[in-house]
Specification:
The complex is a heterodimer of chains A (192) and B (591).
Chain A (H helix, E strand, L loop, with lengths): L4 E8 L4 H14 L3 E5 L10 E9 L12 E6 L2 H7 L3 E10 L6 H4 L9 H8 L1 E5 L1 H8 L5 H12 L7 H8 L5 H14 L2
Parallel strand pairs in A: 1-4, 4-5, 5-6
Antiparallel strand pairs in A: 1-3, 2-3
Chain B lengths: L1 E5 H11 L4 E4 L7 H6 L7 E4 L3 H13 L4 E6 H17 L5 E7 L13 H7 L2 E3 L4 H18 L3 E6 H4 L1 E6 L15 H4 L3 H24 L3 E4 L5 E6 L1 H10 L4 E5 L1 E3 L3 H10 L2 E5 L5 H8 L18 H9 L25 H9 L5 E5 L17 E2 L4 H15 L5 E7 H17 L5 E6 L28 H8 L6 E4 L4 H13 L4 E6 L9 H7 L5 E4 L18 E4 L1 E4 L9 H5 L5 E4 L2
Parallel strand pairs in B: 2-3, 2-4, 4-5, 5-7, 6-7, 10-11, 10-13, 14-15, 14-16, 16-17, 17-19, 18-19
Antiparallel strand pairs in B: 1-8, 6-12, 9-11, 20-23, 21-22
Helix pairs in contact in B: 1-6, 3-4, 9-11, 10-13, 14-18, 15-16
Classes of the chains: A alpha/beta (192), B alpha/beta (591).
Bound molecules: iron/sulfur cluster (SF4) (2 copies).
Chain lengths: 192, 591
């Protein structure tokens, strides 16, 4: 594969995006790709908008991309998808967690959570939507939402050949391994 | 073996492999994880958090004079604090190699300005190295130390957020034990009196000439020949962006050693290519020097000097390539600024403080800076670490001197107070100031991700240590015992009463709010002092009169839709909203 692929993971601080990106990157490395990943720290983690970028291919130079370049956006929160939509390729794909986290201006009543986010997304891009939070809750731990998303992403990217189970195992505490593997599989089932 | 490391992790590994035995730093994004990743090499490397960057660099200088390979790390604005020792250590030169890591933040992901610290190398006349990915970050640490020792200079190791916080593959190596160089007393070298300084300055200029020769010869500055129609001079992460855009269609002069610049090499390169671009992030540091040397090039005419670069910006600027993007109504999207966490101990105090009319609140750098946002809006200024106390003092004096009846309250965190707040407090006492100082002691360095500080009782490498007693320190500085208040910031009545009393005093006052950061893993001492119970609060819909007062506390767990409601996954039961609610509509559950 000569071309470099760009994945954007977006959401809100505290949703486990960095861990999901790490697992993703390790999976891609194990598949023999050159990988670069860019993460956010500091201020942005205090409930702010968070994004990580993972780029892979034969040889990757820049760890970040600009507008119109993401092959896929994996979004952990609905409105965040809109915020980053200008980074998607015109023929790119979106995988969205149907989940709302109101931001501070919304909480204090200065603004309203945007309506019809899903409709807009569907109209503009090839969009897969599901409720990762509910799936994670059903499995017994809302925190596994990030791994559900990861599973969906792996499927959407056609990266099923990677041994994700093994990599998840290396990255989570032993007592959470089983639930996370289940989350991974559930996530994969969400994408056709 | 290859590992996937951030630049910060790679620098830490590099220090380990290169036989460094002393490191010191003050935490600051994007530099923080360098020390956190060196700390585990406890057997080989001594690592510590210093109370501020000046102390960190001075300690590293001491270790270097003693003969050890040493490293100090900080964010770009930290170098301003450490500039004093830097400029003189540039004169004396080193014994064991010394690196000063400056982690700059183009784009201001979490900083108050975006200064380009490459100018510090030129200004202080030290050597500078700029890696462009994690592999180089690791390898260059070793090279920098060798340069430091060979040319008798500190080395500025300049990285940026995208180097610090992006992961790339790194081939690991083994640690090389270089041991400690013999220490010899050498007054003419290490005692910077004017007489010695004058001699040393001559040496520094001499050294710069040698370093320039090295710069022209070293492989750190390397030419990649491709098509010669376009030539690009670049350094750091900008090299990766340029490669991304131009690939093999342009030739590159990639600069890894950037002070002094390899002017001869640059000239040779310039002579061979048709059009010459300089692609660098932020300031025209390389471009200016090239133009001063009469080399024709295109740089900031096209490449912005504001903000972080990316391949797109470069493609647009030089190739006039505009990417197609999806068009949609961006006005629909609501901002998502960072906020004080649910249950943050600063919130209660800020909520009460912001109610006070006719005061000016001078703020500082840390989580509590977020108290400046709506709805709390509890801050008038935020300049730099420590400035809350000293700028507060200045403002109070100015008001008084000019007959304006307004009180000033400076708010600062525990770590920041140790960093440079205490000196401001000395200023207040010594100069008979009257500003109120509030030390928001959440028992940890919060914003950068929970680093120990002199008040926490633990060191970076996990040893128990003496915890500085903030009230006693204030007393020692000269604040009268009866003017020191210690309160629980989650107790709104106590906050109100204390603020009122403090504002009435004509002598300097310190309010210390003590409660651990909600995200902090409590130490045994914390549990003993503050307890460790978990409850949450709930809104009683019947009683809720939709007054929205609880939302004014700015807690992200509270939302409002006809009636208030509390997100039980987020709430930690700090009770602030419960006390704020005038209709007793919020109750405690799970006690
Ligand atoms: S991290 Fe700690 S100090 Fe910072 S906002 Fe959250 S609770 Fe407050
Ligand atoms: S008690 Fe109220 S203010 Fe405190 S965390 Fe819960 S909802 Fe927020």
């Amino acid at each position: 594969m000569a071309e470099v692929k760009n994945i954007l993971l977006v959401g809100v601080g505290g949703q486990g995006i960095i861990l999901a990106s790490k697992i993703l990157a390790q999976g891609l490395i194990s598949a023999g790709y050159d990988v670069k990943m860019s993460e956010v720290h500091g201020m942005a983690q205090r409930g702010g908008s968070v994004t990580t970028q993972v780029r892979y291919g034969k040889k990757v130079y820049s760890p970040i991309i600009g507008k119109g370049q993401a092959d896929i956006i994996v979004s952990f929160e609905k409105m965040e998808t809109l915020r980053w939509l200008d980074h998607l390729k015109v023929d790119g794909k979106v995988v969205v967690n149907d989940y709302e986290i109101p931001s501070a201006p919304i909480l204090i009543g200065d603004a309203k959570y945007p309506e019809n986010v899903i409709e807009i997304l569907k109209e503009k891009a090839d969009t897969t939507i599901f409720k990762a939070a509910d799936i994670a809750k059903e499995l017994g731990n809302i925190k596994t939402m990030n791994v559900v998303m990861l599973g969906a992403l792996a499927k959407a990217m056609g990266l099923e050949e990677v041994d994700w189970g093994k990599i998840v195992k290396n990255n989570v505490k032993e007592k959470f391994v089983n639930i996370n593997i289940k989350a991974l599989n559930k996530g994969m089932e969400q994408v056709k | 073996m290859k590992e996937f490391l951030t630049g910060n992790e790679a620098i830490a590994r590099g220090a380990y492999e290169a036989g460094v035995t002393f490191v010191s730093a003050y935490p600051g994004t994007p530099s923080t994880e360098i020390l956190e990743n060196i700390a585990p090499y406890k057997e080989h490397v001594y690592a510590e958090w210093a109370p501020n960057e000046k102390v960190a660099l001075e300690a590293a200088i001491g270790a270097s004079i003693a003969g050890a390979r040493a490293l100090a790390a900080m964010k770009h604005v930290g170098v301003n604090v450490a500039a004093d020792p830097l400029f003189t250590y540039a004169y004396t030169g080193v014994n064991g190699g010394l690196i000063l890591v400056s982690a700059d933040d183009p784009g201001m992901h979490s900083s108050q300005n975006e200064q380009d610290n490459r100018y510090y190398a030129k200004f202080s006349k030290v050597a500078m190295i700029e890696p462009s990915d994690s592999q180089e970050a690791k390898d260059f640490v070793k090279i920098a130390l060798e340069i430091s020792e060979k040319y008798d200079t500190p080395v500025l190791f300049r990285v940026t957020t995208r180097i610090c916080h992006s992961k790339t593959l790194v081939e690991l190596g083994e640690r090389e034990e270089v041991g400690i160089k013999p220490y010899k007393k050498d007054i003419s070298k290490y005692v910077a009196t004017p007489a010695n300084g004058r001699v040393l300055h001559v040496k520094v200029e001499e050294r710069l000439k040698q370093l320039e020769k090295f710069s022209n010869e070293t492989e750190l500055n390397k030419i990649e020949w491709n098509d010669k129609k376009i030539g690009i001079v670049t350094s750091g992460i900008a090299y990766q962006y340029a490669k991304e855009v131009f690939g093999d269609t342009a030739s590159y002069l990639k600069l890894g050693f950037t002070h002094p610049l390899p002017m001869k090499k640059i000239e040779e390169f310039a002579n061979e290519v048709e059009v010459l671009y300089v692609i660098e992030e932020l300031e025209p540091y390389i471009e200016e020097q090239m133009k001063a040397a009469g080399i024709k090039c295109i740089g900031k005419e096209l490449i912005p000097r504001i903000g972080e670069l990316n391949p797109d910006i470069i493609a647009k600027a030089i190739l006039k390539e505009e990417r197609q993007t999806i068009q949609y109504d961006e006005a629909k999207i609501v901002g998502r600024p960072p906020t004080l966490c649910a249950g943050c101990p600063h919130r209660g105090f800020f909520y009460m403080l912001a109610k006070k009319k006719n005061i000016m609140i001078t703020g500082d750098i840390g989580c509590y800076t977020l108290g400046s946002a709506e709805p709390l809006s509890a801050m008038d200024t935020c300049i730099c670490m420590g400035a809350s106390v000293s700028a507060g003092h200045g403002a109070q004096k100015a008001f008084e001197f000019n007959g304006i009846d307004k009180k000033v309250v400076g708010v600062i965190g525990d770590s920041t107070f140790f960093h440079s707040g205490v000196t401001g407090l000395m200023d207040i006492v010594y100069n008979k100031g009257n500003a109120v100082t509030v030390i928001l002691d959440n028992r940890i360095t919060g914003m950068t991700g929970h680093q120990e500080n002199p008040g926490t009782g633990y060191t970076l490498q996990g040893d128990k240590t003496h915890a500085i007693n903030i009230p006693l320190l204030c007393e020692a500085v000269g604040i009268k015992k009866e003017n020191i208040y210690i309160i629980n910031p989650l107790d709104l009545d106590a906050c109100k009463k204390t603020i009122d009393e403090a504002l009435d005093k004509t002598e300097p006052v310190v309010i210390i709010t003590e409660w651990p950061c909600v995200l902090k893993k409590p130490s045994p001492e914390d549990i003993e002092k503050f307890g460790n119970k978990r409850t949450i609060c709930k809104v009683d819909e019947e009683k809720c009169k939709a007054c929205r007062i609880c939302t004014k506390t700015g807690c992200p767990a509270i939302s409002f839709d006809e009636k208030a409601s509390i997100n039980e996954d987020m709430c930690v039961g700090c009770d602030v909203c419960l006390q704020a609610c005038p209709f007793d509509a919020i109750e405690k559950v799970g006690e």
